[in-house]
Amino acid sequence: MENEVQKKRILSGIQPSGDLTLGSYLGAIKNWAALADEYDCYYMLADMHTITVRQVPAELRRHTLTQVAAYIASGLDPEKNVLFVQSHVPAHAQLGWVLDCYTMFGELSRMTQFKDKSAKNADNINAGLFTYPCLMAADILLYQPDFVPVGEDQKQHVEICRDIATRFNGIYGDTFKLPDPYIPQVGARVMSLTSPEKKMSKSDKDPNGCVYMLEKPEDILRKFKRAITDSDTERCVRFDRENKPGVSNLMSIYSAVTGRSFEAIEAEFDGKGYGAFKPVVGEAVVEMLRPIQEETRRLLSDKAYLESVYRAGAEKASYVAEKTLRKVYKKVGFLAR
Ligand code: TYM
What we know:
Layout: E1 8-14, H1 22-32, E2 39-45, H2 47-50, H3 57-73, E3 81-85, H4 91-100, H5 105-109, H6 112-120, H7 127-141, E4 147-149, H8 155-172, E5 180-182, H9 217-225, H10 245-258, H11 262-268, H12 273-300, H13 303-332
Parallel strand pairs: 1-2, 2-3, 4-5
This protein binds ligand 1.
């Protein structure tokens, strides 16, 4: 096997801070399953990030376990992908601290997610929320990945991760590989169904704006039927993010689900108007999610299996992560134990 070419590596993660959304599915998970043959893939459940916002402990545990099941049900074969829980690999917190000391206050102050989340949680603007990008940089850099597949909203965090790595490498010599974000062509920015100028998000106050991966089909359909379309007089299905954000969002979702181009979708609904389009998108989403929902439910009834998956994942992840951590500790001058 000595001649085997080393596969390029991928790492990504999702916070189990609630039920997974259609945005996380289309922007991230859906694209992950196809990468397993070509890449060496690590997918994390970013539970440590979730406590930057107050969580109900029992709910966090439930969401984490459900997310393990949903990863597998979405096609991530645990034999081919390393699936692990962030808090099970202490190296994340350990490298996170080191990187805190190589990240500037000014850099962190410019992060859009910090600004958004501190506005939403004005009574809990904690230090973790502020230094979150350092922990995320640690999540990534520990695994020396080539690519980080994420939705558009996480691009800034991958960029600051590169900046931190570049700074560290500049001081201590090559330590971290610089990763590239890997953002899908369609589905990278799924917007709320009720306020299409905002990202679809589980923290959205309006329950009708966000669709969940494990939601009942009838609820998904209802949300799509009620989705806000635009008040333009044209009323035809045409892609125009600027002037028709509602319809364009539905077109992006439909395109991500069916693989059809915007031109093909425009032709399919030519002369039909918004009323015909919305339920078709809803149904396509329901059909895409149906087998995943069934498989998630089946897996959740086998807790012992899920446990075996995340235990094995933590072991494999720790092996790689600790190797990088040892290198970093040595470089900064910590005395070896
Ligand atoms: P999180 O948990 O908010 O989102 C998980 C993934 O889903 C994508 N996503 C979306 N894509 C398109 N449209 C949307 N409406 C939408 N909402 C979410 C996100 O871009 C992301 O890819 N900080 C990260 C989690 C994280 C991470 C990491 C990611 C922690 N450590 C290391 C990559 C590498 C986060 O909060 O994503």
